[in-house]
Design brief:
Two copies of one chain form a homodimer. Chain A has helices at 11-22, 60-66, 89-109, 144-163, 184-194, 214-227, 245-256, 283-287, 296-309, 312-315; strands at residues 2-6, 26-31, 50-54, 72-75, 114-120, 166-172, 174-176, 198-201, 208-209, 211-213, 232-237, 243-244, 261-264. Chain A is α/β, with parallel strands linked by helices. Chain A folds into two domains: 2-175 and 211-237, 3-Layer(aba) Sandwich (Rossmann fold), CATH 3.40.50.720; 177-209 and 241-315, UDP-galactose 4-epimerase, domain 1 (Alpha-Beta Complex). In chain A, the strands form four sheets. Chain A has a seven-stranded parallel sheet with strand order 3-2-1-4-5-6-11, sandwiched between helices. In chain A, strand 4 (72-75), helix 3 (89-109) and strand 5 form a beta-alpha-beta unit. In chain A, helix 5 packs across helix 7 and helix 7 (245-256) crosses helix 9. The radius of gyration of chain A is 19 Å and the shape is globular. The two termini of chain A are 35 Å apart. The interface between A and B is large, with 41 and 41 residues.
């Protein structure tokens, strides 16, 4: 099959690109390299079945042209920055809502109707029910990131109903693993490299979050695409466990052989709109036969190992 | 208080403008007159407390300037056309999502934090539970209109959390009454004027919908704004009854003394994305003390009377 991947040079996009090429598919990757990394595409570039298009999802003409021969679209390009939404709200509007609209319009212009979308557990806002199911009570949004991803979901669903599209919407917990470039493991590791004796933590360290390794995430997405055939296919993707930020700090510092003084900013939330508890019910994707292979602890440590072996990721980073 | 109303020349906007002026408030109305009518503002223009600004919600500079002295914003401007979403999807993106974002940004620039928003029962997609409560299971969108209004809701909620806004979100059923300018009563009346012997109906006539009269709708909105003080205040607004399209046809033709041959297009839905059953649970607003005064039948007849007395509304209409 011919896949089109927006955000192909990102964390999830580049791993998906490699996986699809390994499985024998053709991939046209699309990225504006605002956060994507050319080095994440080094393996992909060895394949003659890979084609890279430099382009922005806000450029509808470029997108419509690049997408034209695709059978299936993975729309992963996004402003994935949950934390700094209030510093630049337009980013979420443009990169998550308008960009998704453009992808849908580019598909429609080319009569392509299969789309998978990287959404987020943040669309549940601060749920009252844990683990949180896909049909949890209608949530109230608490972050611009969540709101913009929910808007993207809604547009895709409307195109499924209105234009005969088939959609796969994945609500992720935080993804960890090779090519991970932002989030708490990144921040903590970078901070400990600079000063191994002290670690500043947002919130009180008791925020409970769930995580998933990128390879388990790819397994789940590809399984869903293969086996689920509803008009709109919605899946939570996460592990049946969660940890406290403090647990993660323990694993990271133990792995690095460090014993820093941990200094908490305090409060239940790390930042405005931070969700103190994320834990998704993933029974639906498990019922399709998905079995994740790595625990949160293993994923955290693999992520630290990746950062240790790829210092350029955080040293060169803008 | 000083109110700013986007879409002040529209059906709901002009009625709200008149009501607020009658209650002694100041109103700055904002409209681009794409569907709004100058004649709906005839009463408002008699008041020295009314100021009209011709402007588009897509023009952020104009909006930011016009909104500046407001205490409270009613954001009613929208593409309210549920039915033709698939003919011009960009309209819902621009007029319902980007416009809402612009209103929020204009407010933020002027340190205004109180906003009420006209959303819709269409955000519930095709619910499984009737009457449908505000916290119904997380819906899947079935129309571009619903998706775009949900996106607007999400943005407002995120601004409430991120920027200390206070939001009032009203999920309407279809509103009827004076200055009503589109929907099935409009279509049927216009069609019967042209040919009193035949009436073409989309769907099978068994679509069940709920309606609310504009004056009852204004009562509910103003009561909620007065009495509800959460960060995000979400209310369904509708009657505790619904009717079939066929019921409405009966009331209209009886009122007009006509007995047309009714020809059905057939099918459960009037158009793609049409919802065959809309019936909202409005216990939350009723618990605040709201009591609607008119039944659906009375509202339908009052609407026909308005159209009979204001032929210009459908004769001049583009």
């Amino acid at each position: 099959m011919r896949f089109f991947i927006t955000g192909c040079a990102g964390f999830i996009g580049s791993n998906l690109t490699d996986r699809l090429l390994r499985d024998g598919h053709e991939v046209v990757g699309y990225d504006n390299f605002s956060t994507g990394q050319q080095r994440f595409l080094e393996i992909a570039h060895h394949s003659t079945r890979f084609k890279l298009v430099h382009g922005d999802t806000l450029n509808l003409d470029s997108l419509t042209s690049a997408i034209q021969d695709a059978d299936f679209v993975f729309h992963l390009a996004a402003n994935a920055d949950v934390r700094f939404g209030t510093e630049h709200p337009r980013k979420d509007l443009e990169q998550n809502i308008i960009a998704t609209f453009n992808v849908l319009e580019a598909m429609r212009a080319n009569d392509i109707r299969l789309i998978a979308f990287a959404s987020t557990g943040s669309v549940y806002g601060e749920p009252q029910i844990f683990p949180t199911m896909e049909d949890a009570p209608f949530p109230v949004q608490t972050s611009l990131y969540g709101a913009s991803k929910l808007a993207g979901e809604g547009l895709i669903q409307a195109y499924c109903e209105g234009f005969g599209f088939q959609g796969y919407i994945f609500r992720f917990v935080s993804i960890l693993g090779e090519r991970y470039t932002h989030g708490h493991v990144f921040d903590f590791y970078k901070s400990l490299c600079a000063n191994p004796h002290e670690l500043h933590v947002l919130g009180n360290g008791h925020q409970r979050k769930s995580y998933l390794h990128i390879e388990d995430c790819l397994d789940a997405m590809l399984l869903a695409v293969e086996k689920a055939h509803d008009k709109v296919n919605l899946f939570n993707l996460g592990l049946d466990e969660y940890c406290e930020v403090n647990d993660s700090i323990g694993w990271i510092t133990q792995h690095l052989g460090l014993a820093p003084k941990v200094i908490y900013a305090g409060g239940e939330r790390g930042w405005i709109g931070d969700n103190p508890f994320i834990y998704l019910d993933c029974a639906k994707i498990r019922a399709m036969g998905w079995q994740p292979k790595l625990t949160i602890k293993e994923s955290v440590i693999k992520t630290v190992e990746f950062l240790q072996n790829n210092k350029w990721v955080y040293e060169e980073r803008k």
